[in-house]
Amino acid sequence: MISPRDRFDVAVVGSGIVGLGAAYAAARRGKRVVVVDRTERPIGATVRNFGHLCIGAQDGAARAYGEVSRGIWRRLAQDAGFWLRESGTLVVAREFDELMLLDEAAHAPGGEDIRLLGPSEVLAAAPVRPEVARGGALVGGDLQVNPREAAAAIVRLLASEGVEFRFRTAVIGVEQGRVRTARGDLLAEDVIVAVNHDIDQLLPELAERAGVVRCALDMMRVAVDLPGALVAPVLTGWSLVRYARFARLRTAGALRERLHARRPDLAALDLNQMYTQLPDGTLILGDSHRREVQPDPFQPETAFDAFLEEVHALFDIRRLRVLERWQGVYASAAEEFLVEQPAPGVLVLAATTGIGMTTGLGLAETEASRAFGWQAAGPVPDPLAAAAQAVAADPTSHIPQEENA
Ligand SMILES: Cc1cc2nc3c(=O)[nH]c(=O)nc-3n(C[C@H](O)[C@H](O)[C@H](O)COP(=O)(O)OP(=O)(O)OC[C@H]3O[C@@H](n4cnc5c(N)ncnc54)[C@H](O)[C@@H]3O)c2cc1C
Hints:
Radius of gyration: 21 Å
CATH superfamily of the largest domain: FAD/NAD(P)-binding domain
Mean pLDDT: 93
Number of helices: 15
Number of strands: 20
CATH topology of the largest domain: FAD/NAD(P)-binding domain
Shape: elongated
Bound molecules: flavin-adenine dinucleotide
């Protein structure tokens, strides 16, 4: 016999950003929601990333989920009181082929959100070494959060609005109307599974059919003495050849070939050379990628050596001290998203590439309402829309302009 305290409208498995997005979507519709997680608080990919909400570099479904996510992130940041900035994304071009790809993107249909920058504008936006910056671009509309505080703040907000969290409770099975946990069963009309790469532990056949494996990343946080701040997350050519909006363009192939031919050592790490600066001034550096069903937990020092060498080559660093190193893991598959209904009333959601912070809230809002026929909860009120529109209209409004750039 299940007690009334274990009966809900919606049960969400996983308290990462996708699960929190699902809980928020359900709670906004007045549903009684429980979130179950085996850990004591969110400590998965959602707290281990760059905090870069990189909407403008996405394409297709990822772009659509990202656009929905943007409004939800803004609303949550205001209501839950965590740091979010309307930064856009700065791309630093060090070679002509990177400038060509940025130029192609800016002149493609929909390219109005990409503002090409001259060298001095790049230098005004980030303390890059003057001799390496040939130019760059600012992609408007992107956001930045501190991943270490955002999930915890969203948990507090949702809990204060009546969502129940059952932490330290492993889920061992899901079926229509029921979630089996190590502490007993819960009943719920709708069940949403958002366990990232660990889907292979809960629903192994589904994971194998979708080809889900783990992608392990090395990451590092450093204290740096720099002559200026990063106004936005910084991407390089290594990022352009990964993110769909740029990677599908005509000039991307030649750039990829050049990068790989010139730096096979970095290509072997499957490097995405990028940087975010946290409000305390420290920099997150990364990242390398290893895809396997069960990647080794041991982090070879080669990746960290490369991060340090490359950060010194790009930025005008006077002093640097390594503060932390960690491994992050996310689900990886041929498709960018896993959206499946293995049983009536059970929905499985995952970002199966490294863009879940950008897309996860929109993925959950869109797919949960579609799968369960939830009525529209009205547009997410967007308290910062005016500021965002201003940045979208002129993404470089916060960067000093270079004449004739
Ligand atoms: C190093 C790194 C850098 C990244 N950088 C970015 C970035 O800058 N921008 C971006 O958009 N994306 C980035 N990503 C990707 C992004 O972080 C992930 O896609 C996203 O956080 C996934 O969210 P999630 O909720 O699916 O997973 P998670 O945050 O991993 O949450 C899953 C939760 O499910 C729980 N769980 C699993 N199995 C069970 C079970 N059986 N019972 C109960 N609970 C269970 C886990 O304990 C966990 O809390 C990065 C990822 C990594 C690892």
